[in-house]
Amino acid sequence: MNFTLGFKPAMGDSSSVENLEKQLICPICLEIFTKPVVILPCQHNLCRKCANDVYQASNPLWQNRGPVSTGGRFRCPSCRHEVVLDRHGVYGLQRNLLVENIIDIYKSESTRPLLPKAEQQQLMCDQHEEEKINIYCLTCETPTCSMCKVFGAHKDCDVAPLPDIYKRQKTELSDAIAILVAGNDRTQALISQMEDICRTVKENGHRQMQYISDKFDELYAILEDRKRDLIETVGREQDLKQGHVRSLIRRHGDHLEMSVKLVETAIQSMEEPQMAVFLQSAKEVFKKITDTAKASNIERTEAGYESMAHFIINTEDVADMLRGINFQTGEDGEDSGDEAPEDPTTSPGQTGESLRRI
C-alpha cells in the first residue's frame, strides 16, 4: 500500500529545535530521554530504564536477583566503551541533571509531542485521501485506515490500533537491540579471552623451550665433564709411558758413552810399543771390556708398549639413548624425578580439548 505524507507543523518549528530534539533521543528506545537520565563514563546518556535493560541483557545471570542490580558491566551502545558498575548497579550511575533540565525546558516551550520527527509526519491513505493511517492490519501486516477496514481491501482482516502495534514493535525492537548488544559484548569477551589464551600459549611455549634448552645444557655439561676425565686418564698413561721410555733412553745413553770411552782407551793400549807396558795395561782394559760386555744386556719395552688402543669407549648405546630423548607422557612422567616448570594458567587436568570448549 502506498501512503502520502501530511505534515502537521508545530509551534516554534525550526531547525535549531529539531537539532535539539535529535540530541535528546535515547539510542536504545529511540524516544526522548525518560527521566532519570544517567551519564556513562564515556559521557553518553541513557534513560536509566534503558541502561538497566542493556545491563540485564548483558548479564543474564543477574536477572533473577531483584530489581536493583549489584555490580557487573555492559558496553555503551553508542561507542562500545565498557561500563563497569559498582555494587549499586545502574542506580550508582550519575544522573545528568543538565539533560533533564533541557528536557523540561523543551517540554515547556514546545507544543509538539515529544516523539521523534518521523512520528510528526502524518501518513494518509492513498485509497481514501482524507483518511489518516490509524490502524494496523494484522493479517496483511501493514498500516491502513479505518475506511479500508470497513469498505476496502482489509474488511475481512484482523486489525489493531496503530499506536498499540507501534509501541509493541518498538519494545520488541528495543529488546532485540539490547540482546544484540549483549551478544556483541559476549563475542568481544570471547575474542579477548582467545587473545589472552594465544598470549599465554606463547609465554608457556617460550617457558618450555627454555626448560628444554636448560636440560640439554645440563647434558652438555655432563658430557664435557666426562670427556675431560677420560682425556686426563689417557694423558696420565701417556706421561707414564713417555717417562719410562725416556729413563731407558738416558740409561742406554750413559752405557753407550761409557763403551765409546772404553773403546778409545783400548785403542790407545794397542798403540803401546812396549810389550811389558802393553801387557800390564791390557789386562785392566780387557777386564773393563769384559765387564761392559756382560752389562750390555739392554732393557727393552715389550711389544706394543707404545699402543694406546685400549683407551676406547662405546658411545653407540648412549647415542641411541640421546636420539631417543622425547617428551614424557602418562606414567613415564610420574616416575621421573625431573619436573617441568608448572604452567600457571592451566589447572590440573585441563587440556587443549577443554580449552577448545570455552
UniProtKB/TrEMBL annotation:
Pfam families, sorted: zf-B_box, zf-RING_UBOX
The B box-type domain, residue ranges: 120-162
Residue spans of biased composition, Acidic residues class: 331-342
Keyword set includes Coiled coil: yes
Assigned keywords, A-Z: Coiled coil, Cytoplasm, Differentiation, Metal-binding, Microtubule, Zinc, Zinc-finger
Every RING-type domain range: 26-80
Location of region: Disordered: 327-358
PROSITE patterns: COS, ZF_BBOX, ZF_RING_1, ZF_RING_2
Keyword field contains Cytoplasm: yes
Alphabetical list of Gene3D superfamilies matching this protein: 1.20.5.170, Classic Zinc Finger (3.30.160.60), Zinc/RING finger domain, C3HC4 (zinc finger) (3.30.40.10)
Gene Ontology cellular-component terms listed: microtubule; Z disc
GO molecular function: zinc ion binding
Principal location listed in the UniProt entry: cytoplasm
Primary role: May bind and stabilize microtubules during myotubes formation.
Protein name per the record: Tripartite motif-containing protein 54
Biological source species: Carassius auratus (Goldfish)
Top-level taxonomy: Eukaryota, Metazoa, Chordata, Craniata, Vertebrata
